[in-house]
Amino acid sequence: MRPIIASIFVIFLLSGCVTFKQGEPLKNGVVSFLESEYPQYSSHRFKLNKVVELHVKPILFNKIKEFCKNKNAIFEQYTMNIGWCISKDKIPLFMMYKSYADPDLGTFTIAEKQNYISDKDWIIYSKEFYPYLWSEYNKRER
């Protein structure tokens, strides 16, 4: 019986009938903004360690860039598949990338720190898990 229930659950998940909302996004962060302003274009939200990931439709790309600009931060897209928004104090506000699930969902991923994570811990975490972004950023800082 369990395999049947699991199969039905997976079918609903993949068809978009079930939307997950895990993790605690920042109150004034990009994930909360996108979920409240554009719920029709944002789908699954997952928590992974210190990160909240939201899968969003590409139509929101310019809104995401504008959000970054309104935060007085720097938006950088290094390749078609990865970019971020980083404050002038060198604190990443969010990262954008294609995850393994995005091609099937027709989305890309926005990742930001969870509400209870300190800036210091977030910087350490981001340097460990997003070294490419820091490497590219540091090249441009020179």
From TrEMBL:
Top-level taxon in the UniProt lineage: Bacteria
Listed PROSITE patterns: PROKAR_LIPOPROTEIN (PS51257)
Record organism: Photorhabdus luminescens subsp. mexicana
Protein name, per record: Lipoprotein
